[in-house]
Write a structure and sequence with these properties.
The longest helix has 33 residues, at 11-43. The two termini are 19 Å apart. Helix content is 79%, strand content 0%. It has one domain: UbiA prenyltransferase (Tetracycline Repressor, domain 2). It is mainly alpha-helical and 264 residues long. It is globular. The chain has helices at residues 2-6, 11-43, 53-56, 61-79, 84-91, 94-103, 110-118, 121-130, 135-157, 161-167, 172-176, 180-201, 206-225, 231-263. Helix 6 (94-103) packs antiparallel against helix 7 (110-118), helix 7 (110-118) packs across helix 9 and helix 12 (180-201) packs antiparallel against helix 13. The protein has 14 helices and no strands. Belongs to the UbiA prenyltransferase family. One of its GO terms (biological process) is ubiquinone biosynthetic process. Pathway: Cofactor biosynthesis; ubiquinone biosynthesis. Keywords: Isoprene biosynthesis, Membrane, Mitochondrion, Mitochondrion inner membrane, Transferase, Transmembrane, Transmembrane helix, Ubiquinone biosynthesis.
Length: 264
């Protein structure tokens, strides 16, 4: 979206997609390592997580900490390829990444904190391309991403809700309960609306909105079909939500491709 707004050459998005792809892989992995370090004792009591390496003792906390150091070093290596504005913006996300695993112990909204961490790229990606954040576009995009995360991670959390009650863990799955479907429908509508608004402010064309429309249809399909009391169904719904992000991406890519062809 930043490359579309600034009409940058193809090499710009390709470069930053590569960097951010690697950075996302490394930092998501670091988040998982931190999560497993926080939860190694809790994981032993949950059927889905009791075979994780820290929970079983296959990996020691010291080994996990050393591995985390390697992950964060690799992430820093990616971050230093960006401009100083982006380096500071990226570094500021570490606090949210670090506290997220602890939130399930103190609030029913850990999925919201996850959304704040996972969608930082909505701002960081823009600043990497443009040198600064266009807040008018990026804030609604970021907020739309947070709503999307609340949808897919609440579905994910329904897999563990029985174990969570026993272990004293909190989540939006437990908070929403029987109201999950209407609440997630409202969050999906909010996500789609905010992303559409971001596209409007960025001057996007029909392909972008077509992609957002397909994303909305995918979210509706997931929420219609998911049985929130079935772990396999929740897992399928969680994965299905990812395809909504794919369609938004394809819409933005299509708009950028049309723009590049018109300029050539």
């Amino acid at each position: 979206m930043a490359s579309y707004a600034l009409q940058t050459p193809l090499t710009t998005p390709l470069t930053y997609i590569s960097l951010f792809g690697l950075g996302a892989l490394v930092m998501r992995g670091a988040g998982c390592t931190i999560n497993d370090m926080w939860d190694k004792d809790l994981d032993k009591g949950v059927a889905r997580t009791k075979t994780r390496p820290l929970a079983t003792g296959d990996i020691t906390p010291s080994q996990a900490f050393a591995f985390l150091g390697l992950q964060l070093t690799a992430g820093l290596g990616v971050l230093t390829q960006l401009n100083w504005y982006s380096i500071l913006l990226g570094a500021s996300s570490l606090s949210v990444v670090t506290i997220y695993p602890f939130m399930k112990r103190v609030t029913h909204w850990p999925q919201a904190v996850l959304g704040l961490a996972f969608n930082w790229g909505a701002m960081l990606g823009w600043s990497a391309v443009a040198g600064a954040v266009d807040w008018s576009v990026c804030l609604p995009l970021y907020a739309g991403g947070v709503c999307w995360t609340l949808v897919y991670d609440s579905i994910y959390a329904h897999q563990d809700k029985t174990d969570d009650v026993t272990m004293g863990i909190r989540s939006t799955a437990l908070l929403f309960g029987e109201r999950t479907r209407p609440i997630l429908s409202a969050l999906s509508a909010s996500s789609v609306s905010l992303i559409t608004y971001a596209g409007y402010l960025n001057g996007h064309g029909a392909l972008f909105y077509g992609g957002v429309g397909l994303a909305a249809a995918q979210l509706a399909r997931v929420l219609w079909r998911t049985d929130f009391d079935s772990r396999p169904s929740c897992w399928k719904g969680f994965v299905g939500c990812g395809w909504s992000g794919f369609w938004v991406w394809m819409g933005a890519l299509g708009d950028y491709a049309v723009l590049m062809s018109s300029l050539s």
